[in-house]
Amino acid sequence: MNNASPSDSAFGIPKGITEIVLLAGKGDYPLLLAQSARAQGVRRITAIAFRHETDRAIARYVDDVKWIYLGQFGAVLGALDAWGIKHAVMVGQITPTHLFSLRFDRMTFDLLKNLKQRNAHTIYGAACEALGQHGVQLLPAHLFMEAAMPEAGLIGGREPTESEIADIHFGLKVAKITSGIEIGQTVVVKEGTILAVEAYEGTDETILRAGRVGNGGAVVVKVAKTGHDMRFDIPVVGLRTMKIIKKSKTRVLAVEAKRTILLEREKLIQEANRLGICFIAMNTEDSLQGHA
Fold first, then answer.
1. pLDDT at position 11, please?
2. Which of 11, 100, 122, 225 is the most exposed place for a label (fewest CB within 10 A)?
3. In CATH, what number is assigned to the domain containing residue 38?
4. In-domain check, residue 154
5. E strand or H helix at 130, and its extent?
């Protein structure tokens, strides 16, 4: 796969890129990225959207959209060929359980048949490699969104207590281990006890499960996997996450500084303030070294 060319802005936009394709999953992330890319000078934006996943509002933010079913990788390549665009961004989530109910075309079957393990890293990694062989460069998923990645420090809400700080550091350590062995990027801790570790059900269900087990008051820690692939493996927090935080009666949401994308940041801060939770970004390397 070709390497990205040098940047010509603080946002890391490779020189000469005026057209991109969004491989658009669910949620607001694809819509916000399209807006940001347009504001930063990308003249032509198209999207490959997935039925029963992608928000239909995507059509308002792009110049053209191709709707396909999950598992139809041949249709993805067909749309890319028709548009002739050589740079793509994989943005937004796919409902994990849907991967067990796909109608694979022959190209997708061939793509997956040699994978010894099937998880986000292997599946998306194989897709990235296939796109590269097809002459399409998959760009980092945070492209055009660097301003949404927080520095270390309190983002919103209240300061953490000493007990919560201890749980944050413990959660960071555990989450780095679990994500590194393809279990999950989110861990929920309460008073030194692990209530839940993210599995294939996704972050929201993990937080809700912890809320039921621990009767609220927990610390949620979300990190990027060690050695994560910036093309598809970046944690994202949006207003839906805050709704789940409220429902589960969580007291703290800790994310990894500079490796997490905050969607609609100001609204997230307002929600943290309203809910009275601690919303904080942690410098993981310093944290782990200081609390080994």
1. 40
2. 100
3. 3.40.50.20
4. yes
5. helix 120-133
E strand or H helix that includes residue 286: helix 284-290
Predicted confidence band of residue 19 (pLDDT cuts 50, 70, 90): very high
Question: Domain holding 185: CATH number?
Answer: 3.40.140.80
Q: By three-state DSSP, how is residue 149 classified?
A: coil
Q: How far apart are CA 72 and CA 50, in angstroms?
A: 10
Backbone angles phi, psi at 16, to 5 degrees: 85, 0
- Distance between CA atoms of residues 239 and 275, nearest Å: 12
Please tell me whether residues 122 and 165 are part of one structural domain: no
- The full DSSP string for 156-198 is EEPPPPHHHHHHHHHHHHHHHHHHHTTS-SEEEEETTEEEEE-
Q: Which residues contact 195 (CB under 8 A, 6 or more apart)?
A: 188, 189, 209, 210, 213, 214, 218
| Residues 248 and 214 sit within 8 Å (Cβ to Cβ) | no
